[in-house]
Amino acid sequence: MATGKSSLRLASPVWLVLAGILSVQFGAGVAKSLFDEISPTTIVWLRLATSSIILVALARPTLRGRTRRDWYVVLGFGVALGTMNWSIYQAFARIPLGVAVTLEFVGPLTLAVLGSRRPRDLLWVALAALGVGLLGLGGGGSLTTAGVLFALLAGGCWAAYILLSAQTGRRWPGFDGLALASVVATVLLTPAAIGTGGSDLLDPRILALGALVGLLSSVIPYSCELVALRSLRPAVFSILMSLEPAAAALAGMVVLGEFLTAEQWLAMTCVVVASVGATRSSRTVAPAPD
Q1: Crossing angle, helix 122-138 and helix 106-116, to 10 degrees?
Q2: Which percentage of the chain shows pLDDT scores above 70?
Q3: DSSP states of 187-253 as a string?
Q4: Residue 254 lies in a domain
Q5: Which residue did the predictor score with more confidence, 97 or 264?
Q6: What confidence tens digit (pLDDT) does each residue in 133-192 have?
Q7: Residue range 64-85, pLDDT digits in tens
Q8: Closest CA to 229 of 280, 221, 48
Q9: Are 176 and 59 within 8 A, CB to CB?
Q10: Worst-scoring range by mean pLDDT, 79-93, 116-130, 204-218?
């Protein structure tokens, strides 16, 4: 009987994390479906603006009494956050959703392996390299050089996001640091969004669609993860996050009709397994990207 109750307590946070993962990736699918009428830069700016407004309203960050180092950290966090979101949306515009997220995982996976420093974890590096190699061999006409490079840039920014989020959390209480970093990311992309979006940013329909993407990709996942992490061990959370590429592939099929090849599915499996293995061995927890 006790085992049954324990299983129920575990199931709830696990399902919340999975719901957040699906929400992020289906939000990305919805965003990509709009790229014919809204540029990737504009839609990612609308997503960041939505999350910034909500986070600032909830956190109401205190700005007084902060050191120069505090501001440097949160500014760096915001630059990493903005560049990560912008580059992965640029990748979405060029290559399949599942492939882009698989390549993006190279960043946090590398960080997890470096955080472990165990010789056996070189096996996870080899497995991930095999996955990336299979993507190159089995990509066919669905992959472009620019799309792959944008996805890898997003992965590098994700690794920086993880490191800077830890520093931000130590220097800024609650959601203060994340709220301010979201504002920095929004401001950073504003000139490009205005340049590509122009009058579209005054269209109520476009604003509503952007808010929907922000809701699916930021607000719902934040809420699910916040509740789940109250009772879920960080190691379990990180392992669950390794399912992001599979969720992205599912969203790509359902929302966009993007069906991956057998080689791409095998490559994704290699990267997911490598991510799970590296995460189990690492002291570095890889939180979800914004």
Answers
A1: 160
A2: 85
A3: HHHHHHHHHHHGGGGG-HHHHHHHHHHHIIIIIHHHHHHHHHTTTS-HHHHHHHHTTHHHHHHHHII
A4: yes
A5: 97
A6: 777 665 555 688 899 999 999 999 988 988 888 888 788 887 788 889 999 999 999 999
A7: 888 889 899 999 999 999 999 9
A8: 221
A9: yes
A10: 116-130
Res. 114: pLDDT tops 80: no
Name the helix (H) or strand (E) containing 87: helix 68-92
Instruction: Report the C-alpha gap between 32 and 35 in whole angstroms.
Output: 5
By residue range, what is the domain housing residue 165? Answer: 12-281
Q: For residue 6, is it within any domain?
A: no
Burial class of 3 by CB neighbour count within 10 A (0 to 12, 13 to 18, 19+): exposed
Show the tokens assigned to 128: 């991930």
| 1 part of a folded domain | no
User: How many independent structural domains does the chain possess?
Assistant: 1
| pTM of the full structure | 0.82
Q: Strand, coil or helix: what is 36? A: coil
Determine, yes or no, domain membership for 147: yes
Q: Distance between CA 80 and CA 68 in Å, rounded?
A: 18
The C-alpha atoms of residue 41 and residue 24 are separated, in whole angstroms, by 17
Read off φ and ψ for residue 213, nearest 5 degrees. Answer: -60, -40
Q: Nearest CA to 229 among 13, 58, 22, 59? A: 13
